[in-house]
Amino acid sequence: MIIGIKDGMKLIGIFVMSFCAVFVCTLFLNYNMDFAGIKEQIAGPELMVLFDALLATGKVVSALAGGCLLLTSGIMLVFYIRNYIDTHKKELGILKALGYSNLRIAKDFQIFALSVFAGTALGFGGAFLMMPEFYRTQGKDGLLPEITPHFHPMLAVELIILPTVAFALLAVGYACIQLRRPAIDLLKERFSMPRKPFRGKAKEDTSADGIPFLKEVQSATLRSKKTLVFFVTFGSFCYSSMMQMSGSMDELASEMFACMVFMIGVLLSSITLLLAITTVVHGNTKTIAMMRVFGYTHEECKKAVLGGYRPWAYIGFVIGSIYQYAILKIMVSVVFRDWDNVPDYKFDVKACIIVLISFTILYELIMYCYAGKIKKVLLKEVMME
Amino acid sequence: MIKAENIKKSYGSRENRFSVLKGISLTIEDGDFIVILGASGSGKSTLLNIISGLEKADEGVIDFDGTKIESLSEEKLTEFRKKYVGFIFQQYYLLPNLNVDKNVKMGADLAGNKDYREMIQAVGLGEKLQKYPHELSGGEQQRVSVARALAKKPEILFLDEPTGALDEETGRQVLDYICELQKKYHFSICMVTHNSNIAEMAKKVVKMNSGRIVDTYTNEVQKSAYEIEW
Q1: Is position B209 within any domain?
Q2: Closest Cα of chain B to A98: distance in Å?
Q3: According to the model, what pLDDT value does residue A371 have?
Q4: What is the rounded distance in angstroms from the CA atom of residue A369 to the CA atom of residue B151?
Q5: Which residue of A has its CA nearest to B55?
Q6: A297, B93: Cβ pair inside 8 Å?
Q7: Which of B78, B109, B114 is the closest to A213 by Cβ?
């Protein structure tokens, strides 16, 4: 077995995403299940509207948070496996050369689902710790009948066991597909990339004074790992949407809820951005080393390797701003439309500017740290490999 | 001209410290072809890394046309490599996600060389501009690295076992391209190799063993890549 438990637990990004997704889903779904049982105790049409609105909120939040985060975790898992295979070509090639079947090798990849199990189990447990306070807040401080949290075994199966099994199957299946290449290609560490760098009919570049080399490296870095572009955009999207949501929802939801969204936003976006940029720098160590050997400055190396991600980070920020506005607007004008006490929701420009400034600082700080890492790339170490 | 004097280099710390270079002095004249010959572990690659500004010596002076390389900051060393030095390594180190054209452009852009495709033609790869490194043979990849190094118009070319990963025929071909291009562009060559036959191609040979120069001699006749034994 070439993949150990340690490798399985290294998937911190998937762990955090699973944790966040299950934490939010458990809170809302458990509440919905307990809350649905007291329908007959609801007195008056106005409270009934609130009852329906709360149930709808639970469903919407669970579907959005759970669905979105689990989908992203799936993409991250696929990315991890591909990266793992790319960095362990020789070991995998030897196994294939020795006669191990693709499925036999791929089976080891199920260990990657351990991170999902750890994340979902902790998210589930964490949600139960928060549940009394959450129930109190959802009960609108005594406006609705008091309910106590109950444990629903089915929810545990759906939120812990099912995702773990699904991710284990995804890991094995995807690894099996990725391993379908000749053992000799893996042994010789042949680089896997499309023959044509562009979609459609590739235009032959015949001009010698076209795009400068640094721009070429920048776009080639983006092209070679498109998933990382997605993660950088997604990380910025999470930061933008969740920070703005937590800042502008003070009249719409409780402090606890805003705080929860804030924490998830910071955690999710920082980890996603850190993981993506770490992979970018690791994957380009040799490129950086060779550029420095040839006399490209530290600034030029940094720009070539990391510079291409900046526009995507800000695109993610803009999408996140629009997304959070749309979600809150829909919640206010559709889900809670019959509820009198809900104020009208307008786009919070002030929150947007504050979040944009903090995002710029965070993003540039991360880039600054990684620029330091680029500076520390030892030319000799790379060449001695 | 590069003049290295009393170069010393050690690795490790305290009891594990071992001396790789024990006081090396050598001179590379403009337009020279010098081969540093030695077995594995003799310190030849470390010497090449130090005189090319990739690594710093513990002691000694390296003078490049009046500039003391050992006292340069990291930024100045980068500038030095950019202006004057070209490299060719045993493992090619081509950028895998860039095609032949873009790989050579890496060197050309540093020198503002717009005619870099002439260099690709010169190493016989004019038809493979759009190919990626993984689509080329070992010999072709090394020829790309030759074109890349020379596209930046270096004054001195450093080669670390350039034929180490190549078969005889391809190795001869690569060396021949390098020699032909030296005649045309007049750069200096400093090549590290363990193959004593290749040393017959050089003007000057520096033999190393255990971190010391054990012999230095000049070849009366410089053989071509196709005249030497392999």
Answers
A1: yes
A2: 24
A3: 86
A4: 33
A5: A380
A6: no
A7: B109
- A184 contacts chain B (CB < 8 A): no
Q: Sort B140 into a burial class: Cβ within 10 Å, 0-12 / 13-18 / 19+.
A: buried
Residue B228 resides in a domain: no
A99 burial (CB, 10 Å; 0-12 / 13-18 / 19+) is exposed
Give the C-alpha separation, B184 to A175, whole Å. 52
Q: Which residues are within 8 A (CB) of A146 and not within 5 positions of it... i.e. 6 or more apart?
A: A139
Predicted confidence pLDDT, tens digits, chain A (385 residues): 566 666 666 678 888 888 988 998 999 899 888 888 887 777 777 777 777 877 887 887 788 778 878 888 888 888 888 888 888 888 888 888 888 888 989 998 988 888 899 999 999 999 999 898 888 877 766 677 788 889 999 999 999 999 999 999 999 999 999 998 888 888 877 655 544 444 444 444 544 556 788 988 999 888 887 888 998 999 999 899 988 888 776 666 667 777 878 888 888 888 888 888 888 888 888 888 889 888 899 889 988 888 899 999 999 999 999 998 888 888 777 766 666 666 677 888 988 999 999 999 999 998 888 888 888 877 666 665 5
Domains contained in chain B, number: 1
CA of A24: how far to CAs of A132, A156, B228, in Å? 14, 13, 74
Cβ-contact A269, A69 below 8 angstroms: no
Q: Is B89 on the interface with A (CB under 8 A)?
A: yes
Question: In this predicted complex, what is the ipTM?
Answer: 0.82
Tokens of A363: 């993003």
- Which residues in chain A touch residue B75, judged by CB atoms under 8 angstroms apart? 297-298
Using the Cβ of A213 and the Cβ atoms of chain B, whether some distance falls under 8 Å is answered with yes
| Contacting residues of A for B159, CB less than 8 Å apart | none
Residue B73's domain comprises: 2-218
Dihedral angle over CA of B157, B160, B162, B166, nearest 10 = -170
Domain parsing of chain A, residue ranges: 1-192, 212-385
B134:A292 CB<8 A: no
- In whole angstroms, give the CA distance from residue A144 to residue A385: 66
Backbone phi, psi, residue A361, to 5°: -65, -50
Contacts with A289 from chain B: Cβ below 8 Å: 93
On whether the CB atoms of residues B70 and B57 are closer than 8 A, the answer is yes
